[in-house]
């Protein structure tokens, strides 16, 4: 499903600008946007289909920072 108003990259830019302390983990089907996602401030990037363990590990890792 697509976000109705803006995409995840645009949302990440806004979130990081307004609330720099919030950790953003991008979960997407689009592996080709990894560099752009990290450039706009995403703290972690995962592709849908990753293992549940990997997703949980990334979320826990970001919560510790």
Record the SSE blueprint:
Layout lengths: L7 H11 L6 E4 L5 H6 L4 E4 L4 H13 L1
Parallel strand pairs: 1-2
Description:
- The protein has 65 residues and is an alpha+beta fold.
- 46% of the residues lie in helices and 12% in strands.
- The chain is built from three helices and two strands; from the N terminus they run H-E-H-E-H.
- It has helices at residues 8-18, 34-39, 52-64; strands spanning 25-28, 44-47.
- A two-stranded parallel sheet has the order 1-2.
- The relative contact order is 0.18.
- The mean pLDDT is 92.
Give the key terms.
alpha+beta; two-stranded parallel ribbon; 3 helices; 2 strands
The largest sheet is: 2 strands, parallel
The secondary-structure element order is HEHEH
What proportion of the residues form beta strands (DSSP E)?
5-15%
Q: What is the alpha-carbon Rg in Å?
A: 12 Å
Summing up helix and strand content along with how strands pair, one would put the structural category as alpha+beta
The global form is: globular
State mean pLDDT (0 to 100 scale).
92
> Runs with pLDDT <50, length 5+?
none
The span between the termini is 29 Å
DSSP, total strands: 2
Helices, by number, come to 3
Helix content: 40-55%
If strands are numbered along the chain, what order do they take across the biggest sheet? 1-2
